[in-house]
Write a structure and sequence with these properties.
8-stranded antiparallel β-sheet; 3 domains; Uridine Diphospho-n-acetylenolpyruvylglucosamine Reductase, domain 3; 5-stranded mixed β-sheet; 22 strands; alpha+beta; Uridine Diphospho-n-acetylenolpyruvylglucosamine Reductase, domain 2; 13 helices; about 30% helix; disordered N terminus; Vanillyl-alcohol Oxidase, Chain A, domain 3; single chain
Amino acid sequence: MTGGRTRTRRGDCADASGGRPISNFGGNIRFTPRRRYAPRTEDEVLQILNDHRDGTIRVVGAGHSWNPGIKTRDVLVDLTHFHHIRVCGDTGFVTAGAGVRIGALLKHLSKRGLTLPSIGLIDRQTIAGAVATGTHGSGRHSMSHYVASMRIACYRKDGEARVRIVDAGRELRAARCSVGAMGVVLEVALPCVPQYFVRERCVWRPGLTAALESEVEAPLQQLYLMPHAWTVLVHERSVAAEARRTGWAALYRAYWLTVIDVALHLCVKFSASLMRSRRLVHLLYRRLLPAFLFPRWRVTDRSDRQLLMRHDLFRHLEMEAFVTREHLAAAVDFVVEVLRREDERGSYVHHYPICIRRVLPDDTLISMASCHGMQEQDWYAISLITLTEPREPFQRVAAFVAEGLSSRFRARLHWGKWFPPGEAGVEQGYPGLGEFVATCRQFDPRGVFRNRFLRRTIPSNREQVTAEQCLTHVVRTC
């Protein structure tokens, strides 16, 4: 991410001018910043902010996002060197540098018999990037909800850079999921919990209603709606009463890695991308996949093994929308209706399971499960993924789905996933948005951290258009 080292006025800071373009994991974002930095100290970060206070500064983590959140033509900051981890046994908290990968943090905690209260589906992201975008698993709050404090490099009103500790009140609720709009996050403090074990089995259900019935006994479960068969595979998960491995857990993980993380993806690439065969995709989900999944194989293993998947092995594009529990059934019906209609027309064949995960309400201002200013209720993430290229057919359908879910059910799009294009963002029903914008102004009076993506998705002038107006414009521009 960085090139040679250049001496600047107040110390040494890695800096590369020009050079190769930056691209994200999905390959859909590509740009070349004018300056790239990889600072090693907080003083170097402040130096960068002071030197570029009249420009645009964005921070890159693992690049595991599908929207232009990291994109800038000016300055890009890479916090790879901020990889310290400190565990405080007295308080039960861990402080991690912004550049620490979640996988490395989980391994560090596991050696001490600890783990995080919530993790996402993969562990490749940096902790700051995961928190900034509301990364979540299933059955618990997002990671953002648990943040206890942050150190953020930002600006004073006079434009001078400084480091602020954010640990309470509106500022903390804003910083917990800030999409980089408040400054450069230097470190994050999160609570630790004792390492726990998860009991899991996979079962087939005839539909969404039947799948949700097991939610009480399996609160950590996640659902996979299989296209063209329209049955639901349920990953029933719950915290195990006994902290020990059972049921051939290692063999189960190897089986799941082979059958789902690798073989399924290869079959999708062959049928949908290489052969472009509607019939083969139908056969895959109606006949082949059910034959290779063994339901009711019940295993128990450590949480940081059981809750993670290798979802990063194959490059893909993902759009994820959040709806409340009261709208979930109707929202899923709408998605199925759209995909069936496109399939019948032959204009698009959806080729990947639709993942549905429950996220408990967050104490944040703009995370997708934020309950600020609302009655507390659970949110459900509905994820659409494509493995094929060119991606225009998927993007057209995903943009239409986003419009329908937002206008009908006030859905919220995941800050770390693909956003439909357009001059206006798919902005939607965040009662805390005004407070968030006001807080950002205190940390960034000149809008240095606001790139084009943030300017269109989070207007700073509060004269916001309605969701229907935004989404109508999105569909027209697509």
